[in-house]
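Let's study a protein:

___
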Amino acid sequence: MPKRIYFHQRHLLSLLHKHQHCRRVIQQIHSHFLTINAQENTGLLQYWNSIIKHYSLSMFPQEAVFLFKHLKKQSDPIFFDSFTYSYLIKACANFKQPNVGNQLHCLSIKVGFVYHVYVQTALVNMYVDCGCLIEAKKVFDEMPERNLVTWNVLVTGFIKWGKIEFAKAVFDTMPEKNVVTWTGLIDGYTRVSRFHEALALFRRMFVREGIKPTEVTLLAIFPAIWNIGFLEFCQMVHAYGEKSGLNASDIRVMNCLIDAYAKIGSIDSARRVFEEINDEKRNLVSWTSIICGFAMHGMAIEASNCYKRMEDEGVKPNQITFLSVLNACSHSGLVDKGLEFYGKMLNQCGIEPNIKHYGTLIDMLGRAGRLEEAEKMALEIPSEIANVVVWRTLLGACSFHGNVEIGERVTRKIMEMETEYGGDFVLMSNIFSGAGRFVDSERVRSVMDEQNALKVPGFALV
């Protein structure tokens, strides 16, 4: 190959790595490769592999397969290697085409990659990503050689599709496990709300096996900690993060600590963690987490002051930040303050409210007895996001304050949207009874029976 062509190809390859996420650049470089006047294919494979790789990892992975088919049809075809097939199989996983992946599976066997651990691992991963778990397990079982990555792919694949018992069975038979394996299973148990088992696995990994958790492991275990409310475990993880340097190196760990302490009930600890974060590292999630924590504990003044600090530091709030502040104002009865924040969200920040914002505002106004304002706001909700829950919230407020007139209008609105839930009828019946309108109360109960509306049975917690 002439040196000029060689150096031109190297330059194109460097551009490819530099712009690996830009489809247009990849296509331009692809075109350049096609126009290079090379009479032989020697040395070209690595360049085509690079193109195929970048297509497979892009937003249009099917183009990797199209290119492969085009190159196979050439009069002087290229003999592709294990990297080519691994990238192509990954492309099939990314655009969720197990049928095409199955064809590549057959082709890889024909060309002799049945014993190649990387190609076979890519096949397991492809079948798992596409939800073909039986096929994935079959490829796995037939592999003459497996490495740790192969085992981890199968374990995390079962977890992804909620097959936690299958994942645990594979985990128990693994010849060796690393922190990725343990973290995957811990995350799996957390995702299916088996929090005690997730904590037990974490303790077994750390104490008995002596495997040090990474920041990803800590992020996986936090939901189990706060769902159980295990303060001592949270403190232990906090201490490990300090000693290992994970707290200082990864802001996500600190943000999760704030969230965990707040949800467990230790808002003072959450506040201390927040204040320990350097101003340079503190991000929007940090501010939103502590504001949300204050809101959970009914500390509206603290949440409001924290929002002001965030504003002063030039951090722009998002929908979740405002939802947290509005919740704090709602639970503390600071209606005017809440409406002020709502105005800021609309006018200063240009953030469109979603149904959760509307629901919180209606709940806030309803608690304060400002039912006319709450009704007006409910009527202003755009039809594309409106739901029956906000109207039920308002009906509950009407019941609490004994407002029959608005209660009737709200009930009619609910009946336009849904008639199967008996609780709506019961609540309106109680509103009539509270106002001494017993005939109307019985009429509502009769309508409920005629429509066979669902009555949710009560139960006792012992």
Q: What stands out?
A: The two ends are 82 Å apart (CA to CA). Confidence is low (pLDDT under 50) at residues 37-42, 458-462. Residues 284-352 form one domain.
